[in-house]
Amino acid sequence: MKKIKLIVLLVLMGIANSYAQKKYEATWESIDSRPVANWFGEAKFGIFIHWGPYSVPAWSPKGTYSEWYQYWMQSKALFGNGNFKGDEVYQHHIKTYGEDFDYYKFADEFTADLFDPEEWAKLFEASGAKYVVLTSKHHDGFTLWPNKQANDRGFAWNSMETGAKRDLAGELSAAVKKTPVKMGFYYSLYEWYHPWWQKDKERFVSEHFHPQVKDLVQKYKPDILWADGEWDMEAEKWKTPELLAWLFNESAAKDYIVINDRWGKGIRQKHGGYYTTEYEAGKEFDKPWEECRGMGFSFGYNQNEDAHDYNSTRALLLMLIDIVSNGGNLLLDIGPDGRGNIPTIMQERLLEMGEWLQVNGEAIYATERWKESAQWSEGDRMIDHKGNYLGGDYILKQTIDPVPGKAVKEAFFTAKGNNVYAIVPKFPKEKLILKGIKPAKNSKVTLLGHEGDLNYNYSNGNLVVDVPVLTVEEIPCQHAWSFKITNVK
């Protein structure tokens, strides 16, 4: 027996060693052959953080991204949900700061004096999120860590040498890594107004982009590298296959790092690591994927957004459930202000999501897409919306606040082994009718967070569950409720 165990151990070690030693080539065929780490598909919920000099003015018209402040201001153009003249940000800037105040001066006002990385990390862990992705550098080129390439414009353009005088990325990374939460970094490939990007893209790639990414990875050994800003140039010109081959073969994070799919024009949902969507719904893929969106509309903090512009906790949780039922993850964005304070409304949403996940996490984490993602009522399933981006109210219209004639999702399904979870957006009155779930003789039905088995019967293809009448004190959670059915055939 001891010899058998030893042989098995050696075989497993050999498999692990061969995986670790596999050399990846600078081709998409080779890069795509690297599997996405299992933890990512099991995580389901992550937190996106957009934070930089744009967090100081923190303003753009509703329906636009405030982190694009520099571009909106200098180009006098706007894009998003709404009708715009185009110069709204420019006019706001002139009125507020004057004509002589250029965007780069915001670096000195980006003080982060209220930034407490330990408190941020505690909040993220309490939210139930399993990973964090911080904007190490957005399209303005400002880095949240000390980096020499950030200064090759000819002046200091990083958080260590300007306002904050701190390694913000490093501090947060160290704090998060003390928790079970994984730490990742967003990185923009391009920069709107870098002189090399505008006049010599080959130099920008070889002397700025590649060495900057390598510096970030080698210093902080992130679990995720989240690329963006790739759309203006093909991957061959970005030389991203070469960079990713280095990442997987030589970098300090080569054995575990996870990447997304934004590595060149036309690459999204075709090559790279996990696939990404943004302000979309109803997507399904045959590999790990992730939907990103803000709590309000903007990713960066936008002081122009009011309370009603923010999605409710209920809407955010239903979004999470909807995405997980389709096999994806939700990367939910928060936008701290320029002093490093996470707005109270954002903290509240995260903590309330964490409370729900404490009860219902079993139906979310490490689950898989079942044969049906949801149980629909009769009616039209098409999502109607105006604008370029899908607002968060779509999920309320599909569940608790339906439009006449439209179908609603009566239950969302996830699976783990032979167990199926039916998560319902409305607490059932007396009976819960689930279509297409066939129990075995030894199947049990329970309500997560509530003690005891529930009575049920199966007839005409329907599982009919007797739902207890519960008081406010007895009901296990708010917003949505998870019924677990074991040993489903």
TrEMBL record:
Q: Which UniProt keywords apply?
A: Glycosidase, Hydrolase, Signal
According to the entry, every stretch annotated as the Glycoside hydrolase family 29 N-terminal domain falls at: 16-362
Q: Which organism is it from?
A: Splendidivirga corallicola
Give the protein's function. Alpha-L-fucosidase is responsible for hydrolyzing the alpha-1,6-linked fucose joined to the reducing-end N-acetylglucosamine of the carbohydrate moieties of glycoproteins.
Documented EC number(s): 3.2.1.51
Can you say what this protein is called?
A: alpha-L-fucosidase
Regarding protein family, the annotation reads:
Belongs to the glycosyl hydrolase 29 family.
Signal peptide span: 1-20
Domain Alpha-L-fucosidase C-terminal residues, every copy:
410-486
In terms of SUPFAM superfamilies, this protein maps to: (Trans)glycosidases
Lineage, top-rank taxon, reads Bacteria
